[in-house]
Design goal:
The N and C termini lie far apart (59 Å). Helices cover 35% and strands 18% of the residues. The protein is an alpha/beta fold and 440 residues long. The protein has three domains: 72 residues, Udp-n-acetylmuramoylalanyl-d-glutamate--2,6- Diaminopimelate Ligase, Chain: A, domain 1 (3-Layer(aba) Sandwich), CATH 3.40.1390.10; 197 residues, 3-Layer(aba) Sandwich (UDP-N-acetylmuramoyl-L-alanine:D-glutamate ligase); 144 residues, Protein-Tyrosine Phosphatase, Chain A, CATH 3.90.190.20.
Length: 440
Amino acid sequence: MDLTRLGIAGAPSIEIRDLAYDARSVTPGALFFCVKGANVDGHDLAAAAVSAGAVALVVERQLDVDVPQVIVPSVRAAMGPAAVRFFGDPSRELEVAAVTGTNGKTTTAFLLQSILESAGRRPALLTNIERRIGGESRPTGLNTPESIDLQRLFRAMLDAGDRSCAMEATSIAGVKGRLAGTRFAVLVFTNLTQDHLDFHGTIEDYFDAKRALFEQAERSVVNVGDEWGRRLAVDLPNARTFTPDDDLEGIDLRLRGRFNRANALGAIWAARELGIDEDAIRAGVASVAGVPGRFESIEAGQPFAVIVDYAHTPDSLVNVLEAARGLGPGRLIVVFGAGGDRDREKRPLMGRAVARLADRAIVTTDNPRSEDPAEIAAQVAHGRLEVVLDRRAAIEAALAEARPGDVVVIAGKGADTEMEIAGRTVAFDDRAVAREVLET
């Protein structure tokens, strides 16, 4: 494609064969976007990109590199629209059913994918725990990929024969322009609770970022059982609304918990907005017995229940623990923690929620990134809860104490299989560890 056709003002006429924003992924003939990241400025990698084959750069300042350069006010803002044009505006052909909200995005997307499959709409899947294109799984990455990666994936879906896509759409991705130019055939709002304030600043800004995504949606579905959903519905008078207490109308939901009723109803109404018939909706919902790492039961013949869940916000912990309480007549034992380099304000709120609902709670390490695990745990425990920093030891302690009829919840990581600790990536899967301990 000629660079002049990518919609970047002042672009010279030069043939472009690919787009890249990571110098490690540059191929010959690529246009390299010098994006300023949190830790690395792409302008500093321009020479390396050119050495790898980049034939032009998109920059915010002139660089001493001997290739054509297009100077723009914001490289990141230019990247999304350019990617849409380069890959042929794939969401114009691909029916994108997206889900946004603090909690429930992944489960709702899995339910939507299953319904779309039952309806014969050949869906792809794009979530933080699984990507599926043309019926085959691919490596995961960001919940919502960078704009070049996202548009490339959409094009790959179409090339593989997919005709729809169920996906997560995050507010951070919206603010960072990753979703620029993407058309949503339908967009579901699940809820909004405290999270990501390290990025958004305030809950109002977080809500505004969610609301802005609906400007790209042809149809909207909103959970008005959530207070922020009720506010959103005022701004979207044509939205289809629901509450978690609405009747499932004979649909067999195999997922447990009131929060999963909300996820299912969001998927059901999104499917109806897309014109999918009730038989396909019923079949699609009924075929989902579980979602990896989402209220996932671990069975090894033990006389008590063990649940692994991704809950990592105060609200999601409350939802999961309230649902878990009903699984057995005994005590509720919880192992949980908070991630590092993320919203610190929610940490004591998480601790208070668990202290209120659990009979025993153990605070442990959960993906601390660059922060001190002990400091994070102290902020969560706030002097009220037991701390066992070694996550495996914490799980072992909880399972060793459990008696018949008890329920053990291991929260925070869900289907994640790694932790980042002081710059190192460490393999750790709560589900695998729990099974190993139970079978020992």
